[in-house]
Design the sequence.
C-alpha cells in the first residue's frame, strides 16, 4: 500500500491483530486483491448498510476491501471533450496503489438471482457516501447491488475538522483504506466491477457467493452520474466492460479528465465548476438509459438527444432531485415547501426495463419529454399549465390527477441549506382549487385509478408498486368532501 506515517502504520497493525477485520484474501483480476468479508470496527457494520431485515428477503449484505494499482485516463493528444461525447481517450501507463471498499447486497441463493449486477458509483456530494438499497426497491427483486467507494471524498471526507468520510465514521474499520485521488476513480471503479463480474475468479474469495453473474450494469446518481457520463464517453470505449449504463438524476455535466490530475478533492461538492453539457456518444454498442426528475431539466436541456436502439431518456414531471415524505414536507427545516413527489418508482421501472433490454432485446418504451424552450441569454424555460405544473414528460398519477403544484427547483428559507434547490417545491391546493377539479372523493379516486392503470400499462410503473401508491392516494383523499 501507499507510504504512511509510522504511527498510522502501527495503528493499522495493532488493529489487525486485535480483531479479524479481513478474511482470506483473493484476487479480483488485473492484480487487484479482495479481502473480506470485513467485520469489526466501532460501528459494528458497514457504512450505508441496508437498515432492515435482509435475511427475510433472501438477501445478505457484505463488505470487502479491494486493493491494487490504478491508472488515470487522458484525452489523446490534440483532441478535446466534444459535446457529442465521441472522445478519443487513452489510459496512462503509470499507476499508483489504492485500497478502497465495496458493499455487496446480493441474493443468498442462485434461485433468487436474475443474473444482473448493478454496480453503483457512490455519490459523495454531501462529503460522505450516498447510495444503498432501500426496503421495497427493485434491487431486491432478483438483482445484486454493489456500491463502490470510487472517490477520495467518500474515503477521506472533505478536508478540515468537519470531514465525514469512511475514515471519520469508523476509523477502526476503515483506517487502512488509501485513495490516491479522483483521477484514478475510473480505473478503481472498473476493477471493482471486474471483481463482481462474470469473468471474476469465483473459485477464490468470491463476493458474489458463487452466483452465476451474466451481466453488469453501471449506475450512478447526481454527482456520480456526471462521473459515469465521463466513464461512458471516455473509458468504456477503452475497457468495454459494462453491458449497460444507467445514469440518473443526471445534469449531463461530465468531469474533464484534466480536472482531477492533481489527485485532489474535485467533483465532490455537486457544483458544475464551469463544465458544459455533453451528450452520450452513439457508438457504444451497449444500452444507456437516463432517468431524470424535473430538477435536472434546465441543465440537461442542451444535451437532449434522440432515442435510439441503444439510448433512452425519461423525464418525470413534477418530481425533484430529492423528495421528502408528504406528511413531513411542512416541517422540513431549511427548505421552503419541499417537494414530496418522487421519481423513484419510475427509476425502479426503468431498471426492470434495462434488465429486459439486456436479456430479451426488448427496448423500453419511448416516453414524452417535459416541454421546455430555449431562452436567449438565460436558462431554458419549462412550460407550465394554469396550475403551475410542467407540461409533458412522464406524469405519475399524483401529478396527472393533481392535488398540489409541484416544481423541480426549490429555494431555501433564511439560513437554509445550499442544496435546497434539489428538494424542489410543492404547494398544496386550497379546498377551493380542489373543488374546481373534483366533485368529491369518489371523483378523485376514479380519475386516479385511471391514471394508475395507465402508468402500469405504459411501463413507467411496476405493477407490484401500484397497490401501495393507491393506498396512499386513498388515505389522502379522505380530506375531500363528498
Sequence:
Amino acid at each position: 500500500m501507499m507510504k504512511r506515517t509510522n504511527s498510522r502504520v502501527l495503528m493499522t497493525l495493532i488493529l489487525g491483530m486485535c480483531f479479524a477485520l479481513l478474511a482470506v484474501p483473493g484476487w479480483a483480476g488485473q492484480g487487484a486483491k479482495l479481502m473480506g468479508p470485513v467485520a469489526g470496527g466501532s460501528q459494528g457494520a458497514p457504512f450505508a448498510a441496508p437498515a432492515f431485515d435482509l435475511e427475510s428477503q433472501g438477501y445478505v449484505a457484505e463488505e470487502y476491501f479491494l486493493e491494487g494499482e490504478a491508472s488515470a485516463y487522458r484525452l489523446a493528444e490534440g483532441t478535446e471533450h466534444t459535446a457529442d461525447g465521441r472522445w478519443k481517450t487513452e489510459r496512462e501507463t503509470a499507476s499508483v496503489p489504492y485500497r478502497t471498499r465495496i458493499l455487496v447486497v446480493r441474493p443468498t441463493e442462485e434461485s433468487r438471482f436474475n443474473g444482473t449486477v448493478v454496480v453503483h458509483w457512490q455519490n459523495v456530494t454531501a462529503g460522505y457516501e450516498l447510495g444503498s438499497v432501500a426496503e421495497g426497491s427493485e434491487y431486491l427483486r432478483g438483482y445484486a447491488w454493489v456500491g463502490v467507494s470510487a472517490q477520495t471524498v467518500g474515503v477521506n471526507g472533505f478536508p478540515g475538522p468537519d470531514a465525514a468520510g469512511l475514515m471519520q465514521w469508523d476509523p477502526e474499520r476503515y483506517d487502512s483504506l488509501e485513495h490516491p485521488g479522483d483521477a484514478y476513480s475510473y480505473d478503481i471503479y472498473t476493477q471493482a466491477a471486474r471483481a463482481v463480474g462474470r469473468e471474476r475468479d469465483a473459485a477464490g474469495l468470491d463476493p458474489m457467493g458463487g452466483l452465476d453473474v451474466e451481466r453488469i450494469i453501471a449506475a450512478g446518481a447526481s454527482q456520480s452520474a456526471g462521473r459515469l457520463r465521463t466513464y461512458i464517453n471516455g473509458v468504456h470505449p477503452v475497457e468495454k466492460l459494462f453491458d449497460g449504463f444507467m445514469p440518473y438524476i443526471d445534469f449531463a455535466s461530465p468531469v474533464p479528465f484534466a480536472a482531477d490530475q492533481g489527485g485532489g478533492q474535485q467533483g465532490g461538492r455537486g457544483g458544475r465548476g464551469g463544465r458544459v453539457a455533453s451528450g452520450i456518444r452513439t457508438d457504444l454498442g451497449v444500452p444507456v438509459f437516463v432517468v431524470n426528475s424535473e430538477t435536472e431539466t434546465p441543465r440537461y436541456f442542451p444535451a437532449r438527444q434522440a432515442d435510439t436502439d441503444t439510448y433512452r431518456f425519461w423525464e418525470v414531471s413534477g418530481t425533484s432531485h430529492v423528495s421528502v415524505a408528504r406528511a413531513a414536507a411542512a416541517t422540513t427545516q431549511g427548505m421552503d415547501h419541499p417537494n414530496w413527489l418522487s421519481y423513484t418508482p419510475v427509476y425502479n421501472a426503468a431498471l426492470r426495463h434495462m434488465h429486459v433490454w439486456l436479456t430479451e432485446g426488448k427496448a423500453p418504451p419511448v416516453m414524452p419529454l417535459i416541454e421546455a424552450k430555449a431562452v436567449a441569454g438565460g436558462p431554458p424555460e419549462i412550460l407550465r399549465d394554469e396550475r403551475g405544473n410542467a407540461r409533458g414528460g412522464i406524469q405519475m398519477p399524483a401529478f396527472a390527477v393533481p392535488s398540489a403544484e409541484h416544481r423541480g427547483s426549490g429555494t431555501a428559507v433564511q439560513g437554509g441549506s445550499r442544496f435546497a434547490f434539489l428538494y424542489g417545491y410543492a404547494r398544496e391546493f386550497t379546498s377551493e382549487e380542489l373543488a374546481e377539479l373534483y366533485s368529491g372523493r369518489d371523483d378523485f379516486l376514479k380519475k386516479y385509478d385511471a391514471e394508475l392503470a395507465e402508468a402500469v400499462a405504459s411501463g413507467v410503473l411496476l405493477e407490484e408498486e401500484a397497490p401501495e401508491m393507491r393506498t396512499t392516494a386513498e388515505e389522502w383523499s379522505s380530506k375531500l368532501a363528498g
About this structure: The chain has two domains: 22-286, 317-482.
